[in-house]
């Protein structure tokens, strides 16, 4: 998980140790929708009740956005919000755990979601909390790293796996120019993404992700945020 050529931006899996120094988590949270998007529509007479709202935050890095999202949703949903943040880098998880402001509601685990053995810890969390699905699974700016390291079929498998476990799926895809920048930085450090030239989802990758979610996984987009400063949109699918 180390950086290459002393360039903190030359990473293979997107595990930037200083990520939130150049990506303001507070501004990202401002783009999130209100409670009506996060909650399922109810039939007349139904109630959301007061049971906890469970979120899986995939690629949580050091937990800064995870903590802000927890606070944001707790205020808007007016109920207990439980978050499990997972990341592939143990150093980032160690930092997130050490800086956890809400350990009673927020927990972290080092997990590669495409590794079945590692993913058992997520399944254990679900069993302990009697969950068939998470209320929401969030994938903020990580689809590119899955794509670069696992090809088109790996990204499709990733989206399908999480979709099967989520009532609401939140995806913030990186546009193609981000791929090109990541490839340039890694190449400058003397390495490459071996699958980069083989990818079929390329210049319109964000639209391909939306098409796959809607047409193959039968999801409907409920909300699309204004673009971040990196021109990424946070999309909500139910």
Automatic annotation (TrEMBL):
- Identify one Pfam family in the record: Bin3
* GO MF term list: O-methyltransferase activity; RNA methyltransferase activity
Q: Which UniProt keywords apply?
A: Methyltransferase, S-adenosyl-L-methionine, Transferase
Q: Where on the tree of life does the source sit, at the highest rank?
A: Eukaryota
- A biological process from GO: methylation
Q: Which GO terms describe its cellular component?
A: cytoplasm
The catalytic activity of this protein is classed by the Enzyme Commission as 2.1.1.-
Q: Give every Bin3-type SAM domain span.
A: 1-238
- Listed PROSITE patterns: BIN3_SAM
As for family, the record states: Belongs to the methyltransferase superfamily.
Fetch the PANTHER family from UniProt.
BICOID-INTERACTING PROTEIN RELATED (PTHR12315), RNA 5'-MONOPHOSPHATE METHYLTRANSFERASE (PTHR12315:SF1)
Task: Tell me what this protein is called.
Answer: RNA methyltransferase
Q: Which organism is it from?
A: Drosophila yakuba
Q: Which gene encodes it?
A: Dyak\GE20621
């Amino acid at each position: 998980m180390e950086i290459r050529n002393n360039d903190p931006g030359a990473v293979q899996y997107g595990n930037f140790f200083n990520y939130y120094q150049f990506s303001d988590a507070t501004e990202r949270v401002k783009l999130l929708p209100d409670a009506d998007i996060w909650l399922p529509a109810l039939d007349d007479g139904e109630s959301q009740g007061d049971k906890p709202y469970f979120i899986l935050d995939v690629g949580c890095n050091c937990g800064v956005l995870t903590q802000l999202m927890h606070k944001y949703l707790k205020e808007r949903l007016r109920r207990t919000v439980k978050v499990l943040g997972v990341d592939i880098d143990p150093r980032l998880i160690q930092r997130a755990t050490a800086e956890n402001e809400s350990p009673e509601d927020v927990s972290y685990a080092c997990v590669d979601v495409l590794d079945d053995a590692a993913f058992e810890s997520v399944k254990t969390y679900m069993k302990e909390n009697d969950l068939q699905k998470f209320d929401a699974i969030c994938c903020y700016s990580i689809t590119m790293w899955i794509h670069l390291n696992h090809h088109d079929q790996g990204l499709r498998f990733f989206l399908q796996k999480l979709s099967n476990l989520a009532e609401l799926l939140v995806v913030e895809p990186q546009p193609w120019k981000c791929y090109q920048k990541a490839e340039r930085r890694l190449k400058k450090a003397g390495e490459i993404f071996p699958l980069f030239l083989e990818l079929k989802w390329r210049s319109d990758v964000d639209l391909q992700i939306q098409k796959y979610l809607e047409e193959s996984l039968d999801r409907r987009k409920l909300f699309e945020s204004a673009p971040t400063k990196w021109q990424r949109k946070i999309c909500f699918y139910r």
